[in-house]
Design brief:
mainly alpha
Length: 272
């Protein structure tokens, strides 16, 4: 029976469909782990093993959602080249913490971060308008080719810090890192929400690939490879089709979906 010798058909089906849902949700905002993680734990997989297996399984979905958002990502190459190292470094720190700290270390701060991120998403238009009025944001926001926004050195430092710190969290647990990242980047970057979401998908992909690589090298014997395969297949399909649907949302609809899913993520973390 190979990989699936210790897993019954019903359990495998639940994990597969959890991966499908997680891939779709990650494409929209990024809290799909809150679907897959409880399913893996309910299937009898230890929490750390579930976290590591989940990180590997969601990578195909991250790739698919980034591809689905390729139009919004186009023109952001220069920006992403600056931010990817921060995601990579933060993810390495987070993966180290997962392998060395107690599993409950972040339990008290995670709900607070999610609520803060949701408030930033809700009030993003107002906050950005206030920032512009105070001339803290340089203009123009985007050049005619959709290239890099012109921002001050201080604002760039803030963006890099946000990406780095969110990547630490993502490398440690991953759940709802997209909500947090969108909320903070939406305040700091002058771009439309859909472009920020496209960049978010790429940065989350970097985090998951980096942490998954660490898990594979250091703890390959603790990974449930059957769960990885099932989540990978589901998230691949969910990530692509979720992105194709989400990118058609208006800013208001996308913001509403992010808030609703973020509230669900908040509730799920409290009940894990």
């Amino acid at each position: 029976m190979g990989l699936f010798e210790s897993m019954d058909l019903l359990t495998a089906a639940f994990i597969l469909f959890a991966g499908l849902g997680a891939g779709a949700i990650n494409a929209v905002v990024g809290s799909g782990t809150l679907i897959t993680f409880p399913v893996l734990v309910a299937a009898g997989i230890p929490p750390v093993t579930a976290t590591m297996s989940n990180a590997l399984g969601l990578i195909p979905g991250n790739v698919a959602s980034s591809f689905g958002y390729r139009e919004e990502i186009r023109g952001q190459g220069g920006r992403l080249l600056r931010l990817v190292p921060a995601s990579l470094a933060g993810s390495l720190v987070g993966a180290y913490l997962l392998l060395h700290l107690p599993e409950t270390a972040f339990e008290s701060i995670v709900p607070v971060l999610i609520v803060l991120a949701l408030l930033l998403v809700i009030f993003q238009p107002v906050l950005q308008r206030v920032v512009r009025e105070r001339k803290q944001m340089a203009a123009p926001e985007l050049d005619v080719h959709g290239g890099l926004a012109t921002m001050s050195t201080g604002r760039w430092a803030g963006v890099i810090a946000v990406v780095f710190l969110t990547a630490i969290y993502g490398g440690y647990f991953a759940a709802a890192q997209g909500v947090i990242l969108i909320g903070l980047l939406g305040l700091l970057l002058p771009d439309p929400l859909q472009r920020i979401n496209g960049a978010k998908n790429v940065l989350v992909l970097v985090v998951n690939v980096t942490s998954a690589t660490v898990y594979t090298i250091v703890g390959h014997d603790r990974i449930d490879w059957a769960a990885v395969l099932l989540i990978a297949v589901g998230s691949l399909l969910g990530g692509y089709f979720g992105a194709r649907v989400a990118r058609k949302f208006s800013p208001v609809v996308l913001r509403t979906v992010i808030v609703v899913l973020g509230l669900v993520a908040f509730w799920r973390i409290l009940t894990l």
